[in-house]
Amino acid sequence: MSTKYIVRQPIKDLENHIVGYEIQYYGENQAFGGEDAAANDFAAADTIYNFLTLNTDKLLRGKLHFMTFTTTLLMKKTPRLFDKNELVIQIDDSVIIHPLAMHMIQQYAREGYQIAVNEFQFAPRYLAMLDSIDYIKLNFQTMQDLTLKNIIEIAHSMDKKCIAVGIDREELYQRAVKLGVDAVEGTLVAEKMAQKTHNSGYLQSNFFRLMVAVIRDEPNVEEIEQIISVDATLTYGLLRIANSRYFSLRSKVTNVRQAIMTIGLNELKQWVYLLSASNAENHMDESAEEFLRLSLMRAHFCSSLTNYAKQLPITKSDAYLMGMFSTLNYLIDAPLEEILKQIPLCQEVKDALLHHSGRSGMLYDLALCYERADWAQIDRLAGELGIQANLLTSLYFSCMEDVNRIWRDITQASGEPPILEEEQQES
């Protein structure tokens, strides 16, 4: 059986807010269109169907998810595995020219599912189905501006939304903006930073959990460590303090537990109070929150990959920090090189983050390529690292499940700051 990969990529509006994710899968379904296309189609659909059946809860959480369905997957009623409020059924030309498949699409639309069309064309069969669709996806790498402009104007006149796909460089992004699309998707979009960065980019609800933990009569160091370790900016700030001249250290502090023990709970409590004062005037936007979540996902994925990669010069803990700190330049208003000078990360991790060099850089690049659905590079890097490629999808979704659970715990925390001991005494 050939390797399969399944990954999700963000779709963002022009204000850099995530409107949904596209679920992309690769592997067995690449057999479509072979000499025995029908048999291959069914075999591929079976594999995808079985995987989706086992992973629906991991795949769809909260946002809209765009997923391409072949005729065979539609016939197997695969869309009904998902909540219609979280799924957009995406189709391409092979479905549009299939009478039975189109009948099923119209039925799903009547049931309340949203429909998207990949690489919309100015052709009668596409125009005839406009009433049944909600999203039109346009390939900005292959289509001319005049054609794009006409399609976008028609779509907007019928209250349809247009998504520009294949946006992998700034020139294409600016074309999409100029032509008035509603959302964009592509490797540049996944990495594009918010226009305004924050110098207090920690997640507010997570910070409140930390405040509650540090003001307990008997603070639990393990609980405090867990809270700080899932937040890139809190981890970075704590490591900076623990390695400052104030503590006159003979050896460098390289992880959260060491940092807590080095500065002590009293100093930690004061640091949290100072952060709470600065937080009163700063509120995290959705983009910064998304980068925090991305850093947590990368930390878990890089850490998991160390269990299988051969001849790595870094530890599991180093790999975790590598993923965690990969988005700091989006959360802190400074170049990543300057940020990393402030903390004693091992040189291999710094070289990986800054120059993508060495085997650590290969591990980091593998995580990035998986995010981008760069299938050829995934195969190459996995092979060079000695990782069995067929492990990657299960590892990725296991990490996603962990991150979803952690994120749910964080964001369900109380949105109100706790009453501090000083406030209790004043009252």
TrEMBL record:
Pfam family membership, one: HDOD
InterPro entries: dGMP_Pdiesterase_EAL/HD-GYP (IPR014408), EAL_dom (IPR001633), EAL_sf (IPR035919), HDOD (IPR013976), RNase_Y/CdgJ (IPR052340)
Annotated ranges, domain EAL: 1-206
Record domain HDOD: where: 200-391
Protein name: HDOD domain-containing protein
Protein species of origin: Candidatus Flavonifractor intestinigallinarum
